[in-house]
Design goal:
alpha+beta; Pdz3 Domain; 2-enoyl-CoA Hydratase, Chain A, domain 1; six-stranded antiparallel β-sheet; 29% helix; globular
Amino acid sequence: MGSKLKNIGLISLGVVAGIAASVQFDAVAQKSAAAPLPLEEVRQLADVFGLIKSDYVEQVDDKKLLSEAIAGMVASLDPHSSYLDKKGYKDLQEMTQGKFVGVGIEIGMEDGYVKVISPIEDSPAYRAGIKAGDLITRIDATPVKGLTLDQAMKRMRGEANTKIKLTVARKDEDKPLIFNIVRQEIRVQSVKAKMVEPGYGWIRITQFQEPTVADMAKKIAAMYAENPNMKGLVLDLRNDPGGVLPGAIGVSAAFLPKDSVVVTTNGQIPSSKMSFTAKPEFYAVAPGQDPLAKLPEALKKIPMVVLINTGSASASEIVAGALQDYKRATIMGTQSFGKGSVQSVIALPPDRKTAVKLTTARYYTPSGRSIQAKGITPDLAVDEYADGDILKNLRIREADLTKHLTNDKDKDAEPAAASKVDEEEEEKKAVALSKKHKPYEYGSKEDFQLTQALNHLKGLPVQLAKAKAKGDVEADNDDKDSNKKDDADDKKDDKTDDKK
């Protein structure tokens, strides 16, 4: 059973330009085509190949031509499938270990341009000032318009300490912005943890890598060693774009009863029809070892809040969905990204140095919910700031990506696109609000959503979001707020009884 797990991985939001994606790999292509090839179309392909070879203005290398044909075929399927050449495949393998060379952004395509989904914390792009929603229009002197995402990605890659110039269009700027960035080897710190208040711990997972489960276990054990009577825990998955499936299973297993179903997957091939449970065989990196074995039993029952936002995708949504289904934690924040598909990275013969990253399944929460193009709806909707979320209606989700998979459980799950007038109004509001707010660090005293999470754990009032974002699923916050206040009153009564 454990060997099957190695055939499936989760890709985060975009293709790699030094982005935070990590996967697991198949050794070889699993099977040949299930049906005979359509001979007429194959002949047509051969005819076009021959025509290019004979009539094109200049000579074209055979391997280059065929590689580009393969890349175009795979890229036409959905936003997360792609062909990986030798360098792309090697880069992706390295990133499962949390290190790679690049600028540090998660990307997608919009109107022919590269769209920044999110800069990775502490990356060169992050420090340079690249923001989510930026459109990259030029890479050095090359216009992006007309390039495929894979081609743009290759141009952004390079050797460590080499320079790259990115020209960016930003919605609230009249002129293009120029960013001169030095590529670096980026080592992403997967897990951060600290005591934010006496008795209350904070664990942030920036992305799911191979070492994530073990790193989280070490940090939790250290917190309990110094604070054996912890009262509450906040698991922060905001802007976590996903990563490897074992990481999501292991993080969920730390807080759920043994053998609980964490996630199921379903696709065409038998190996894609799986049920993954909270067992070491599904999350341990080394066979026979359990990185969670020495964690205190109290961790299974400690009151929890999970923070999510639009940047929480894929593996993050698996964790949030599982803890929500079992009512193990209160999910707080804003609607998540909605990437509910699984990608397998399949090495191609004969040399196995190139690969196809192919969407092979959808995944489902323990109760059978599909998150694809929908996302996780928080139990308590809380804005980024006390006076609102400046980018709430401008952030992109899976449903905004071209050729995204539909939600097979809920055909009406996809949010309606906002009108052009609405977007212009929202942009004006965002610009006005952004001038009032200073950037803050997750886990700091200025972190409004974290403050609300702590309030909830203490039984204090929580300031809920005043308005729903584009595509948010309806949630009866008034009832939930009322229930929360009732719970707080019950706790207060219990304390009074104890004093008596």
